[in-house]
Amino acid sequence: MPDIAAVKAALTAQRIETPSWGYGNSGTRFKVFAQAGVPRDPYEKLDDAAKVHEFTGVAPMVALHIPWDRVDDYTALGAHANERGLELGAINSNVFQDDDYKLGSVCHPDPRVRRKATDHLLECVDIMDATGSSDLKLWFSDGTNYPGQDDIVGRQERLAEALAEVYERLGDDQRMLLEYKLFEPAFYTTDVPDWGTAYAHCLKLGPKAQVVVDTGHHAPGTNIEFIVAFLLSQGKLGGFDFNSRFYADDDLMVGAADPFQLFRILHEVAKNRGLEAETGVAFMLDQCHNIEAKIPAVIRSVMNVQEATAKALLVDLDALGEAQRSGDVLAANAALMDAYNTDVRPLLREVREERGLAPDPVAAYQASGWQEHIVADRVGGTQAGWGA
């Protein structure tokens, strides 16, 4: 049986990175519904992120998005984060919102556009140097809409060339995390459509390039935990973008669509040492809270990851292994289901109380008065997303 003290220690050590854009007015590309009290600049995004960490105790990292979080002085922004008990995490690039990128960014047929896109990626590494961030996270909307629109192999070669240039610019303690997406906004071919394509590019680049698994970026029925287990076994799982999707798109709260899938993913992570700091797996949220209150939604998302992690840590690996070796299919499945069906909320409340935290982070936030404060204090919150 699992050692409860070890389970508690792992839950206490867990770190979940929240996205700066999750705190601002952002949502789908069809409509962004503005909310009162949202941050007006990156500094106020960090103020809200600090509240999530204050009440959960496991969210000290905040990912930035450039240019949405561009400031004149990144050292000052880092100091602002540190004063609030936070660190600046992954730097996310943006090569999908400019008119020049209609036919692609680093895969564009025009070398001028490719140069512009690559220069932006290099700028993001400069920002990493200033913030002390170790992760450059790349997602490309590049692709084509029609057969014959462009050379499929040629686009892969352009992608590889840009990635290689950026890879060479990384410092010794920095890495490149390459994300993939099944489709959209490119409807015929997508240049990084799956984990295999991302893995192939990262393998060619070297040890500082790893794959990001966005849990919403897969075809229905895809066995995401297989992808996670394989990448972990090869040392190429750089991190997660946690979110949910019911149909084709993502950005809903992690664990909302299929909490059993989230458990299965984190079971593979826990079983294969992915929770250990030495593996470097980054657990990041990538969500837009369009109709729900933002800070409570981020807190709830962190709690969803915690609950799935706790269940994964409760799997009796000895019993599971014995059943697998003996070919006892039902016993092996039962070992997973027993853990999944465990109500871990009392355990997590106990872990929080032992750390001096409120047992219910959402209720503690609601009672803190922060929401009322920011609604009264902030006027004119700016959109942090697509500009829809």
Order of helices and strands: HEHEHEHEEHEEHEHEHEHHHHHH
In terms of quaternary structure, the protein is single chain
Strand content: 5-15%
Query: What is the average of the pLDDT values?
Result: 95
The first-to-last residue Cα distance is: 51 Å
The main β sheet shows up as: 8 strands, parallel
Count of separate DSSP helical elements: 14
The main sheet orders its strands as 1-2-3-4-6-8-9-10
Task: Kindly state the number of beta strands.
Answer: 10
The structural class is alpha/beta
The percentage helix is 40-55%
Radius of gyration: 21 Å
Described by the principal axes of the CA atoms, the overall outline is globular
Report the uncertain regions. Answer: none
Can you describe this structure in just a few lines?
The chain has 388 residues and is α/β, with parallel strands linked by helices. Helices cover 45% and strands 11% of the residues. It has helices at residues 4-13, 42-56, 74-83, 111-131, 152-169, 195-205, 224-233, 259-271, 294-313, 317-326, 329-340, 345-354, 361-368, 370-377, and strands spanning 17-19, 61-65, 87-92, 135-138, 143-144, 175-179, 189-190, 209-214, 237-242, 282-285.
